[in-house]
Each structure stands twice: as structure tokens, then as C-alpha cells.
């Protein structure tokens, strides 16, 4: 087969499933002590990556790392607050020192403070933006600097379908604004860093059942389940394969994309 690739790149003859492998890679997942972050860390580890799990709580990250190691996954737990620039720098240095240079960054750390616009305090607004947006910015820059130097790397930002809709009945303007900004930041970094061999994509999850999102309860049925085309919520392990796809060579021609995984919620 011939190509007109001006870079002279040859077609990849690797078998399809092998292109999903993350063997030899180091992945850092923020907000990974539980919920979606924990599930994504598990998936990356099962794909062969060494995994650093981070969160604000020391006990949570230690427990998550121990659980991964018990399954034969090389893992390291790091307590870190993504809203603190010094903490982010320390986190990146610690992970690199223990596991090696970071090849995959998953920016998952996030919070939501429900309330109407007039009920939302200035403190709550700043807290949500500092975690959901500033945290993505800081971690991407801290990890991205090394990726630029090495000429390779993948970043997966966890946005949300809430960047495209208005969640009901719980109003949460800071969360919606932060996730919409994450999607656009993803595209900005993708365009800027593509020449350095770095790909930046995002996942936009819909309603998933986690400790922080009990969407299996009856009061959520009308707003979180019935509007979705598939008439159900997602389970955390359904997000893991998509993260592996974006982190691996299986998505080698993708950057700046936002992949929506919402059971068809945003179709209507």
C-alpha cells in the first residue's frame, strides 16, 4: 500500500488489539481515588500502563494504589490538590521519580456545587472553577512541558455532556461553565501541541453511577434516565475502554476531539 504522507510515515502493520496496548507507558490520573477516576486508572493499568493515582485525600489514594498493585498493576498513590500550583509541580516530580516520565495524563479531578445562580456564592464559584478548569490547565502545563521536550504524549481531559446541556432539576452554573471551558481548552492545547507529537482529546460523560452521583435512586429517573435514548445510566467501567482508546495508538489520528459517552442523552 502506498501513501501520500508528506512526513514519510509508513502504515502501521501492528495488529489492531496491539495498538490499544499501553505497555511500558506511565499514566497519571487525577481525582482517581474513587468513582470514574478509579475506574479509568484500573482500565489504563489493565492495558499495561504503570499508573499514578492522585486525589486530595491521602487515605483514598493509598487504598486505590494498593488495590491496583494487588491485581499486578504497577501503581503509585500521590496525595495532591490540583488547585495548588506548588502541589501540582510536586506531584509531577514525585510520579516521574517513582514511575518514570509521564506518557499519559488524564485530567479527571472535578467537583460540583449545586445551586441557582443567585444562590451560588463567590467562594463556590471560585472553588469549582479552580478545580475543574484551573486544575486541568495547571496539570496539563506541568506534564505537557516534559511531553514537549520528549516529543510525545497523550492527554485526556474529562469534560462532560453538561458542557452542551443544562442539567435539571439541580442547577449548577459553575459546573456547566467549567466543563464547557475544558472542552475548548482541549482544542486549544491540541492545536498548539500537535507539532510536538502530543495529542489532546476529551471525554464528555453523561450520567454515571458513582458514590457522588447516585443516579440509581428513584428521584433521578425522570431527569437522568428517561431522557437518554438507551433509557439507563452508565457504569464506571464503561468509561475505561474509551480512555484506553484515547490514550493509546489506537487513536493515533485523533486530537482536539470531544467524545460524548452519554447513552444518547444529548441526542434529543
TrEMBL record:
GO terms for biological process: carbohydrate metabolic process. Pfam families: adh_short_C2 (PF13561). Transmembrane segments: none annotated. One of its GO terms (molecular function) is oxidoreductase activity, acting on the CH-OH group of donors, NAD or NADP as acceptor. InterPro entries: KR_dom, NAD(P)-bd_dom_sf, SDR_fam. Keywords: Oxidoreductase. It comes from the Bacteria. SUPFAM superfamilies: NAD(P)-binding Rossmann-fold domains. Residues 25-206 form the Ketoreductase domain. Belongs to the short-chain dehydrogenases/reductases (SDR) family. This is NAD(P)-dependent dehydrogenase, short-chain alcohol dehydrogenase family. It comes from Actinopolymorpha singaporensis. The lineage of its organism: Bacteria, Bacillati, Actinomycetota, Actinomycetes, Propionibacteriales.
Amino acid at each position: 500500500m502506498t501513501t501520500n504522507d508528506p512526513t514519510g510515515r509508513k502504515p502501521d502493520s501492528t495488529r489492531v488489539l496491539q495498538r490499544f496496548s499501553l505497555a511500558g507507558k506511565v499514566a497519571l490520573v487525577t481525582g482517581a481515588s474513587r468513582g470514574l477516576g478509579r475506574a479509568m486508572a484500573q482500565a489504563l493499568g489493565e492495558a499495561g500502563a504503570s499508573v499514578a493515582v492522585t486525589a486530595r485525600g491521602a487515605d483514598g489514594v493509598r487504598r486505590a494504589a494498593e488495590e491496583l498493585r494487588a491485581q499486578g498493576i504497577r501503581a503509585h498513590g500521590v496525595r495532591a490538590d490540583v488547585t495548588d500550583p506548588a502541589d501540582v509541580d510536586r506531584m509531577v516530580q514525585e510520579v516521574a521519580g517513582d514511575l518514570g516520565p509521564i506518557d499519559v495524563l488524564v485530567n479527571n479531578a472535578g467537583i460540583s456545587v449545586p445551586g441557582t445562580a443567585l444562590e451560588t456564592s463567590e467562594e463556590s464559584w471560585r472553588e469549582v472553577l479552580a478545580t475543574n478548569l484551573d486544575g486541568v490547565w495547571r496539570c496539563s502545563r506541568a506534564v505537557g512541558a516534559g511531553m514537549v521536550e520528549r516529543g510525545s504524549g497523550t492527554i485526556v481531559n474529562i469534560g462532560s455532556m453538561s458542557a452542551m446541556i443544562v442539567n435539571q432539576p439541580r442547577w449548577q452554573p459553575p459546573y456547566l461553565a467549567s466543563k464547557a471551558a475544558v472542552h475548548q481548552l482541549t482544542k486549544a492545547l491540541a492545536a498548539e501541541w500537535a507539532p510536538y507529537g502530543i495529542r489532546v482529546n476529551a471525554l464528555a460523560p453523561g450520567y454515571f453511577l458513582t458514590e457522588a452521583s447516585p443516579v440509581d435512586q428513584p428521584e433521578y429517573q425522570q431527569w437522568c434516565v428517561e431522557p437518554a435514548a438507551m433509557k439507563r445510566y452508565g457504569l464506571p467501567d464503561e468509561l475505561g475502554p474509551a480512555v484506553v482508546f484515547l490514550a493509546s495508538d489506537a487513536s493515533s489520528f485523533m486530537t482536539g476531539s470531544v467524545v460524548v459517552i452519554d447513552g444518547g442523552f444529548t441526542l434529543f
